[in-house]
């Protein structure tokens, strides 16, 4: 059993990842850390976690911890991923793992130097929904792919939320823009060549709140928009010459509708629906991460793929400042 430590009491840890680890077959939570010991103890008591630590350093020095999950604000991911590696701990780090692609080079170096597993927590890459999309595309279910369309929006106007604080790595592209990009890259196995984009920032916070993106993958295009200040919506559609694949509730499973994939023929005379009952993508993520350590199975999203995804996001930021295409 892989012994996890949770480095922070962040909401996403309590809402998604801690329950997933508790539900998993091959890992357990041994401790949780906070800079506020009382806070760590409160969360430990809630989830029956054996140990509470009053500092991140204390948990990293514990012999009872094999790996850490890092749900800190984005601006702190690199620092603590490297510190954990230096302490000999494996790392599952919440997305995005970095503010830019170049930072990931330092994490790759730490991974290799200290011989640990470090992976960015893109839960959708473990979901049976997205594995089915990849299989359908590979098997030519919709013929030649020509266009992918996506959207991810929610409304968050809270000035105290880290997603609205530039210094902490807030903003829409880093928070949710990474999902249409990773979903397209994962499903097709291909990389973008160039990109065009527009971007709007909140004058109060300075964070990007709305972006539209067009990416050229060579044989097909990806177009998507993301916003942190629009009505909630998620959508991904893969459009081919013989039909299209629509992924219902593509990112936050069950939050925006059923976990379904609908494949429709070009003349709409036939459609096939694939349904997934509670795919538990966070559980699948932590179990795959544990296997990659205990059984040496290479199932996790590698940092090299994370770097490519972040380079995509970096190019979108650059493209938003120019009139025309930007090379990825």
Describe this structure in words.
The chain is α/β, with parallel strands linked by helices and 328 residues long. The chain folds into two domains: 120 residues, Rossmann fold (3-Layer(aba) Sandwich), CATH 3.40.50.720; 176 residues, Dihydrodipicolinate Reductase, domain 2 (2-Layer Sandwich), CATH 3.30.360.10. The protein is 34% helix and 29% strand. The chain contains nine helices and 15 strands. Helix 5 runs antiparallel to helix 9.
Quaternary structure state of the chains depicted: single chain
The CATH class of the largest domain, by name, is Alpha Beta
Give the N-to-C terminal Cα separation.
40 Å
How many domains?
Answer: 2
Order of helices and strands: EHEHEHEHEHEHEHEEEEEEEHHE
Got a strand count? 15
Topology:
Blueprint: E1 2-7, H1 11-23, E2 27-33, H2 37-47, E3 51-53, H3 56-60, E4 67-70, H4 77-86, E5 90-94, H5 101-114, E6 118-121, H6 128-138, E7 145-155, H7 172-188, E8 194-201, E9 208-216, E10 221-227, E11 229-240, E12 243-248, E13 260-265, E14 271-275, H8 281-294, H9 303-319, E15 326-327
Parallel strand pairs: 1-2, 1-4, 2-3, 4-5, 5-6, 7-10
Antiparallel strand pairs: 7-11, 8-9, 8-15, 9-10, 11-12, 12-13, 13-14
Helix pairs in contact: 1-8, 4-5, 5-9, 6-7, 7-9
Jot down its keywords.
328 residues, alpha/beta, Dihydrodipicolinate Reductase, domain 2, 2 domains, nine-stranded mixed beta sheet, 9 helices, 34% helix
